[in-house]
């Protein structure tokens, strides 16, 4: 398994200890896995520890997939307020739109995540 796949797998599992070890061993923080996604895109969204590790090591918080969805879109859609706040603190654009012209706040609103909505409205 490539280091990019290992890092993405550890991020997806929310394994902060393994993510930290792989980054310490030199894994590229924004390397894409065999599915063309970065660790930040596949991370366990509720794992702020993993998100912080990746962002502290220079992960791009504005990376978008083929649909224009960013990690901020994903965190807002799932209602992970701490992850949304963390991504924004690392300069993720709260006004970015996906291919359906939806912003992260639109997805939070659609799913009824009021705390996320309120935070994004305050920006």
TrEMBL record:
Single GO molecular function: cyclin-dependent protein serine/threonine kinase inhibitor activity
GO CC annotation: cytoplasm; nucleus
Highest taxon of source: Eukaryota
Keyword check for Protein transport: no
Keywords: ANK repeat, Repeat
InterPro entries reported for this sequence: Ank_Repeat/CDKN_Inhibitor (IPR050776), Ankyrin_rpt (IPR002110), Ankyrin_rpt-contain_sf (IPR036770)
Intervals holding ANK repeats: 67-99
Name under which the protein is recorded: Cyclin-dependent kinase inhibitor 2A/B (p15, inhibits CDK4)
Organism: Scleropages formosus
């Amino acid at each position: 398994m490539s280091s990019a796949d290992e890092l993405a797998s550890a991020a997806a599992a929310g394994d902060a200890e393994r993510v930290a070890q792989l980054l310490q061993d030199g894994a590229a923080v924004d390397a894409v896995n065999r599915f063309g996604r970065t660790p930040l895109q596949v991370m366990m969204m509720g794992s702020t520890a993993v998100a912080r590790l990746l962002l502290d090591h220079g992960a791009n918080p504005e990376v978008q997939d083929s649909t224009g969805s960013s990690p901020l879109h994903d965190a807002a859609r799932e209602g992970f307020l701490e992850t949304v706040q963390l991504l924004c603190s690392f300069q993720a654009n709260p006004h970015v739109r996906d291919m359906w012209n939806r912003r992260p706040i639109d997805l939070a609103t659609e799913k009824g995540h009021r705390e996320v909505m309120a935070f994004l409205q305050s920006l």
